[in-house]
From TrEMBL:
Species this chain originates from: Klebsiella pneumoniae
Protein name per UniProt: GntR family transcriptional regulator
PANTHER family on file: HTH-TYPE TRANSCRIPTIONAL REGULATORY PROTEIN GABR
Top-level division of the source organism's lineage: Bacteria
GO molecular function, one term: pyridoxal phosphate binding
CDD domains noted in UniProt: AAT_like (cd00609)
Amino acid sequence: MSVPCDYYYVTPGHQVPTGVTMSSARRRQLLEHAVRHDAVIIEDDYDSESNFTLNPLPALKASDRSGRVVYVSSLSKALSPGLRLGFMVADPDLIDEARALRRLVYRHPPTNIQYQMAHFLAQGHYETHLRRYHYDSAQRWERLHAALQRYLPSCRALAGSEHANAFWLQTPAQINTQQLTWRAAHAGVLIEPGARHFLSAAPPDNYFRMGFHAINPDAIAQGVEVLRGQLEQMG
C-alpha cells in the first residue's frame, strides 16, 4: 500500500481467486493505514456463511473502532443466488444514501421474499441449514483434496487457502491451463484458467481454479482422474 487510496475494496475472509484468508496482522495494518490516510474500507464478506472452518477469523468490521469499514455480505452463497438478498453494516447516513442510489438501479427485492427470509432467520432454520451446509462442504473439500493428492501430485495447492470454496492450483511450468481448460471441458470436467486473475501484461499461464460445490460428491475423484489424463497428454 505504498500509494494511498481513498477507498479499499477487500475480501479478507477469502481472497479471490486464491481463497487465502487475510491474517490478523495484515488486518491490523490495513485498519491502521485507513486511519492514518483517512481512507474507507469496503469489506465484502461474500462467503462468510459458507466458511466451514471451526474457528474462522472475525470480520474486519469487528475490529473497526473508527467507523471506517463498510461491511457488506450476502445470503445468496449459502442459500440460493436467486434470492438476491444481502445486507450492509455501516453508518446510518451512509446506508440511507446507499438505499437512495439503489432505487435508481433496482427498487428492492420482492417484499414477500424478504419477509419469508426474516421468518426463516428468526425461527432458527438458517442456523440449522448452515450446520448441514458446513458439514457437506467439509466432506466435499476432503474428497477433492484427497483426489488431488492421489491423481495430481504435480499440481501445487496454494498454502493458506485451506478450507476455501475452491482450490487454486499451480501446474508444472510447461502446462498452459487455458488449453487444459478446453481439453478438460471436452472430457466433461470444468475448471477455471487462472491467467484472467493477474494484472500483469504477460500473466503466468500455469494456474487454475477448481471448485466442488456444484459437483456430485461421488463424481469428484473421477473428475480429477480425467483431468490427470488430460495433463498427461499435454506432457
